[in-house]
Amino acid sequence: MLRFTTKGAPFERGEQQGRACRDQMLPWFHERVAASAKVPQAEIDSWLKRIGNAYPAGMEECRGIAAGLGLGEQDYFRVVVGFLTTLAPQCTTCGIRNERGEPLLGKTDDLFSPEAGKNVLETTIPDKGHRHVHFHFAGSIWTVAGMNERGLAIAMTGIPGPTLERDGIPCMEALHTILPVCATVGETLAHLKKLQLNHYGFSLLIGDAAGGMTLIEKTGAGLVVLPQNNGAPLIHTNHILDADFARMNPPQLKSVHNNGVRRYATAMRRAGALGNTEEGVRALISDRADVGPICQQGEDGMHTDFGVIFNPVEKRFTLWAGPPSCTKPETVSMESIFS
């Protein structure tokens, strides 16, 4: 997994990322430019206007990425908009409390074969806001998990949500807004309630250094805080769990829904054996069950690209920089990153 550090204002950080990812990602972008040639430019421009009105700093960072990649802005945004508006992120998350009551947030991130191996770990030192680390697809601002210097940790899965012709942010870019400005579960919930999504949605497992932890579902139709389940593990895959909220949103893609339901069943079956230990979560995200494995190796075309467990109280995370079932984990402290 490629790792790099970016510093400064949004455009500067984007340009630094683009340079760091150029060798890995420029061929992929060139292929996607050709594949998206039939998408009308007016449709691309409409998306860019709506996103730019809602998140100008994000647009500046993307312009920087294009510059760093050495790719024209029109080609870069054609690829990003086309991919972002057809993307259906596949992931599994699991939150438990250890024997000391500290929250542990586990996550796997699943990609289809052409994108597998293209997640990166970025350390960000912004000109404004909290320093943080975040996992995302290379050459983008599509945050899928991360932790900041205050101990706030987030881990997402993708869920179906409406596409709305209004100013707003697609779900993956919306997640990029959290770690620089929030420090607690409460601050994150307040931030998310104000955030306007206009495409797809996410579940988000959130934990903080004070021991807070919650699981939410968020789309352009609203936000739901899921029950704490009397201390049972908080588990999510890729279908909406709140029945009322599910009726307010479009159905999930059939193959994604079926795959997610199988993984959810596996996680729920194993939930009782997790105990209150990090070892239990490690075993879960490395699971290779015959049906519905959490660590995927081609099931429905999906491949688990990495796994991570955050401990917000101790401000550290355990990372599998590849499929957890066959990758050696490493433990990283936030202090060591920012010292």
Task: From the structure above, extract its key features.
339 residues, alpha+beta, Penicillin V Acylase, Chain A, 2 domains, eight-stranded mixed sheet, six-stranded antiparallel sheet, 10 helices, 16 strands, 29% strand
Please sum up the structure shown.
The protein folds into two domains: 2-84, no CATH class; 90-338, Penicillin V Acylase, Chain A. The protein has ten helices and 16 strands.
Describe the structure.
It is a single chain. This protein has 339 residues and is of the alpha+beta class. It has two domains: 83 residues, no CATH class; 249 residues, Penicillin V Acylase, Chain A (4-Layer Sandwich). It is 35% helix and 29% strand. An eight-stranded mixed β-sheet has the order 1-4-5-6-7-10-11-12. The two termini are 22 Å apart. The model has no long low-confidence stretch (mean pLDDT 95).
| Averaged pLDDT | 95
Order of adjacent strands in the largest pleated sheet: 1-4-5-6-7-10-11-12
Spatial extent as radius of gyration: 18 Å
Largest sheet: 8 strands, mixed
Percent range for β-strand residues: 25-35%
Secondary-structure element pattern, one letter each: EHHHHEEEEEEEHHEEEEEHHHEEEH
Strand elements, count: 16
Set out the fold topology.
Blueprint: E1 2-8, H1 10-35, H2 41-54, H3 56-69, H4 73-84, E2 90-97, E3 103-112, E4 119-126, E5 132-137, E6 143-148, E7 153-159, E8 169-170, H5 171-175, H6 185-194, E9 197-199, E10 201-207, E11 213-219, E12 222-225, E13 234-236, H7 243-247, H8 254-271, H9 278-285, E14 302-311, E15 316-320, E16 330-333, H10 334-338
Parallel strand pairs: 1-4, 8-9
Antiparallel strand pairs: 2-3, 2-13, 3-14, 4-5, 5-6, 6-7, 7-10, 10-11, 11-12, 14-15, 15-16
